[in-house]
Design a protein that fits this description.
Pfam family, one: PhzC-PhzF
CATH class of the largest domain: Alpha Beta
Order of helices and strands: EEHEEEHEEEEHEEHEEE
Largest sheet: 14 strands, mixed
Radius of gyration: 16 Å
Protein name: PhzF family phenazine biosynthesis protein
Helix content: 10-25%
Shape: globular
């Protein structure tokens, strides 16, 4: 594997002003890093919460890695990659994911059972969420509180607890998916420093996850 690889860096789930969002690394030529061990090493070196290797854009086949593991599903990588490539579907190990595009938002469909376990911990106010400090490595915690319950607005922060250098995840589609499933309603989540995630329950247990995506910069890493 070459030391330098071409990586596109996106910010997924940005706020209304285009700031914040969770950084995502995308290798459009996934075949440039052909095996799982090398891909895991690249994801660890890049240090994003997730990195996507695009293997077959025509059929929506992608391979997703955190710095420490290969992931069968993850929300923000799929929203970002759908936006980047204009994809309408993904073929994943967990099943088929559809995508749709609006002028401002990109949406994917997903099922809550695809998301890995998360501890959804409710607090009484957004101020309590803002005051939280990063816990010791351990369980994966999604801390949340109502900003405006009637309107479905939530304040959240995410602490992966993995000990892999990602102390706090700026925006996490899988955790938003689980919270939407638990509450059974559409949500507008402000996470991290100011990222925004939208969710909508659909038919047959499917949930839509949507957000804005911005290109950061192409780079060699």
């Amino acid at each position: 594997m070459n030391a330098d690889i071409d990586v596109l860096v996106l910010r997924v789930f940005t706020g209304p002003d285009g700031r914040y969002g969770n950084p995502l690394g995308v290798l459009r030529d996934g075949h440039s890093v052909p095996d799982q061990a090398s891909r895991q090493a690249v994801a660890r070196r890049l240090g994003f919460s997730e990195t996507v290797f695009v293997d077959d854009p025509e059929h929506g086949r992608v391979d997703i890695y955190s710095p420490g593991a290969r992931l069968p599903f993850a929300g923000h990588p799929l929203v970002g990659t759908a936006w980047l490539l204009g994809l309408e579907a993904f073929d994943l190990p967990v099943g088929s994911v559809t995508a749709r595009h609006e002028p401002e938002f990109t949406w994917i469909t997903a099922r809550p059972e695809w998301a890995p376990p998360r501890t959804l911990r409710q607090y009484s106010s957004p101020d309590e969420i803002d005051a939280l400090t990063v816990p010791e490595p351990g369980e994966w915690i999604y801390a949340w509180a109502w900003q405006h319950e009637a309107a479905g607005r939530i304040r959240a922060r995410a602490f992966p607890g993995r000990g892999d250098g990602i102390d706090e995840d700026e925006a996490t589609g899988a955790a938003a998916l689980l919270l939407t499933h638990r509450l059974g309603r559409a949500l507008e989540i402000t996470q991290g420093r100011g990222s925004q995630i939208l969710t909508r329950p659909g038919a047959d247990g499917v949930i839509e996850i949507g957000g804005r995506v911005r290109m950061e910069a192409p780079s060699e890493r």
